[in-house]
Amino acid sequence: MTSEPSNNEPSSTDTTQDFARLSAALADTAERASAGVVTVLGYRRISGTVIGAQQVLTIAHALHGDELTVRTHDGRELSASVTGRDPVSDLALLTVPDLNGSTPSTAAPMRVGELLLALGRPDALQASLGMAGQPTPATGWLATGAQPFRGVSGGMLLSAQGALLGILNAGAMRGQLLAVPAETALKIAGVLAEKGHLPQGFLGVGTQPVHFPADADSQSSAPQEGRRGRGGRGRWGRLGLTVVRVEDSSPAQTAGLKVGDVLLALDGAALRHPGALHEDIRRRAGETVTLRVLRGGEEQELSVTLGER
Description:
It comes from Deinococcus ruber. It is a single chain. By secondary structure, the protein is of the alpha+beta class. About 15% of the residues lie in helices and about 40% in strands. It contains 4 helices and 21 strands.
């Protein structure tokens, strides 16, 4: 016995029309945003995202030298200069005096599963459709799910509504197209415009990673240097960094850190991996942070004002 199809089920015609409307909407989004994507003519062609009247953000690693050319959506070739580079985010800010660009509207990162659009202009405008994923844990960069294409780096990641979500980078993780979140990228651009570089936070210690047994209390168990299970888990669980050097006149010395202290957490967040401390402080020059330290079998907290390099 066969059942009759429900009147509420969409027909193939309805589905086709829905896809056609979605396709047209995405094409309209790309067209509206196209003036905000330029070609950057470095040692190879990449893309750039217009963020102001005379400003373009692009990818730093693809630039050689400080003087280059930018080609706009309407074919103008304009002289540009590098205002500043940030090696951590791999962003470079370009000043293009005759650009006459505009500031894009931005949006917060999307929910996992929402559609997004990657736009680049290595020559002609190109687009790749993606789906939002979880941000990368170490950097907070956006996972786009979009297929990378040659020259897409420096282009813009858009929401389906056309808001800027981030600046694209196809070289940060092999085979994946990631994006620096728009809020982060624009803050970096502001500092680069003012200073030409991003100050790097400085603590002034040398450290050696240690791991505590996963089933032991750190206050009663000695750390085990150089030993850990897979991913820092399993038999060896909690990560610490033993201080093996404190630089003279450094923020660490001023705060009272000593050789032999074990660093456990920064501002309440446990260290995720041996490089986590450096990753966390380098963006926080001049800020006051709280370090949780194991000293003489007891945990304590120290307040440290980070230096700048």
